[in-house]
Amino acid sequence: MLRVFAVGVVAIGLLAGCVSQSKYQTLETQAAAEKMSLEQEIASLRSQQQELEGQKKSLERQLSSLRDELGRRESELSSVNQQLASLSHESTAQRSELEAQRQSLQNQIASLNDRLSSTEQRASELAAQKEDLANQKAQLAAQKDEEIRRLRGTYDTLVKDLESEIAKGEIKVKQIRDRLSVQLVEKILFDSGKTDIKPQGKAVLDKVGTVLRTVTDKQIRIEGYTDSVPISAALRSKYPTNWELSTRRATTVLRYLQDNTGVDGKYLSAVGYGEHRPVAANDTEQGRAENRRIEIVLTPLDAGEMQ
Q1: I need a surface site. Which of 79, 90, 157, 182 has the fewest CB within 10 A?
Q2: Is the backbone of residue 17 left (phi > 0), alpha (psi -120 to 50) or beta?
Q3: Pairing relation of β-strands 12-13 and 171-176?
Q4: Count of Cβ atoms closer than 10 Å to residue 303 Cβ
Q5: pLDDT tens-digit map of 237-272
Q6: Beta strand ranges found along 106-250 (DSSP E)
Q7: Could you report the per-residue pLDDT of 2-55, keeping only the tens digit for each?
Q8: Helix 92-161 vs helix 21-86: angle between axes, to the nearest 10 degrees?
Q9: Which of 165, 226, 217, 172 has the alpha carbon at shortest distance from 195?
Q10: CA–CA dist 150, 133 (Å, integer)
């Protein structure tokens, strides 16, 4: 009925080696956006609750009105019955009129009872719907908390297993609520302009894959990035632009994780962004080196995906 959400304060886990102030601010901005999204979902649920409360109060007023009207009609019927009982057999015309009046009142009372029963049933359904909504909120909040807890365990394991690479600044591991990313600089995986994984890169991916193959509740997206320097003439026939190079590298990493470390392919996807999503300025060698990277991103599975 409602997509997955959580109630609570956004917790930010950032243990990714040395992160610059600008990157930290970027992550804070992302966390704030996620918090705003959750708050909007919570506001939507509260709005639904308020709407149900309004409908419930309206039905309660209808029930009260129907019961009052039913009481009046039953009182009228009782009066007519009393009049009929007191009439002599000779008062045929008056008796016929009262009989017709009694029949009309009985029909009205039957109709009112039907409406009263229908309204009471609707009120009961609204109460059940409100309770169901509250239960869904509680269950989704618990599921989200558990999901974040499990992802925190994955984060802690990756940080421990990749401690030396993190210390050298070759890898950064970040977690923001239910999203985790492993960022690997180009030089640890590939030589310049190449798409074959280096032995050092394979050793790192073996560590990462050992952890990721236990993850069955996340999408694992491999993202390839480059700097803004155009592809050299020598490579242009094979990789016309940075799009092709970044996509090929992402796919190569995906295949390695699936074929060599046992990560289930149904959770994997690969995409190349070329130079279009830099994390640093491209006007310095250091900035360009940061932009040449592979990111392994874990995000919640979409509704309907295989679990």
Answers
A1: 90
A2: left
A3: antiparallel
A4: 7
A5: 999 999 999 999 999 999 999 999 999 999 999 999
A6: 171-176, 179-185, 218-225
A7: 343 333 333 334 333 333 445 445 555 555 565 566 566 666 677 777 777 777
A8: 160
A9: 226
A10: 26
